[in-house]
Design a protein that fits this description.
Elements lengths: L24 H25 L1 H9 L4 H14 L2 H12 L6 H15 L21 H9 L1
Helix pairs in contact: 2-3, 2-4, 3-4
Amino acid sequence: MPITTHPLAPHHLPKFIPGADGSDPLFTAVVILLVILLMVIGNLYFKLHAIPEHMAHKHNNTQLQVIAVLTILALFTHNNIFWVAALLLAVIRLPDFSTPINSIAKSLERIAGQPEAVIKPKSHDKSELAPASDSQKIAEKEA
């Protein structure tokens, strides 16, 4: 007895219906699309979290380590306040307090007549010694 299809049945099936061998092209396409989409969204998420660090690298901020710690905390704890704090630290340049204080200390040492510290290079070559201060030169002339 020959097998005949019902006259009202469609003669060709659409592509999204799984085949008789168990292959499912629509499922395969959706899985591939989902994996690619997940990778793209994850990449954008990590780039968004790295914005403060990239800004700090561009301006060579001294507070780069604090910014890096805050962005990592924001990434792992999902507390956005850490990311906002890192972004604010990256945008705002903190004033340099150490340079003027060091300059004042050197000036006071010069006024007091104390010799400045001579920085010796790592090699033991005598010709590469750092120049002596004015007070050391005077002490050498007197001796």
